[in-house]
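Form P-L/3: holo structure prediction, ligand adenosine-5'-triphosphate.
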Amino acid sequence: MPHKANNNVLVELTSVSKSYGNLHPAVNAVNEVSFIVSRGERVALLGKSGSGKSTLLNMIAGLDRPTVGKICVAGRILSELSATAIADYRRECVGMIFQAYNLIPWRTALQNVELPMVFDRREKAERTAAAQEALAAVGLTERMGHRPSELSGGEQQRVAIARALMNGPELLLADEPTGNLDSSTAEDILESLRRFTENSQTATILVTHDEELAYRFSTRVLHMLDGRLDHDSGVGDV
Ligand SMILES: Nc1ncnc2c1ncn2[C@@H]1O[C@H](COP(=O)(O)OP(=O)(O)OP(=O)(O)O)[C@@H](O)[C@H]1O
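OUTPUT (holo model):
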């Protein structure tokens, strides 16, 4: 029977490994990892410090390349893309959020959110309106003119979410996004991320070492251990 393509598959990793062979002894940060993420899923990558979570996320983001193995996202095989095509992939397909927010300190919230649209064909006024709408969606209408140092940690992370969603990504990647936040602010942030996957054409992969958070947030938890995928549990399986 001919193989039937599953249009729901957004991310597919096949035997992905990453080693830092120039070090002695060589470090196998990620070892033979394979998994599929379908549209509509919220997946947590859970593991202890050093288990390879960030390395894996960065490879899916196109920030780093596997030593061996294949990563396919939204029909693009990342290892076959040129540097320009990887930049297009990152801009068109991926939104990324980090624990440290990574906002530009001398720019306002609005300017930070407008930033990913610099290559956009839209008029400046249209881009500003889109950024205002994104900030309103995360509840920051009153804070648009503030710089990061004038915002709380939770507000800064919401600006980072608005920025990550600005180009309409299919895949949202979040690396310990609530690591610096108190629990109630963290819950607000997770709620914003959950809303993203309400549109079933998208998916989120969230890296965390916090087991409770992983199960609370996601529909599926991938356990990493020493660079390997230890097990894969649907929420409700445990
Ligand atoms: N650029 C690098 N050069 C050499 N080794 C690296 C590099 N980046 C990561 N590693 C090593 O790869 C392994 C996995 O690191 P990684 O940051 O992916 O783990 P992690 O699970 O995200 O950890 P944490 O939760 O502490 O961020 C670690 O042993 C780390 O020391």
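COMMENT: The first helix runs from residue 53 to 60.
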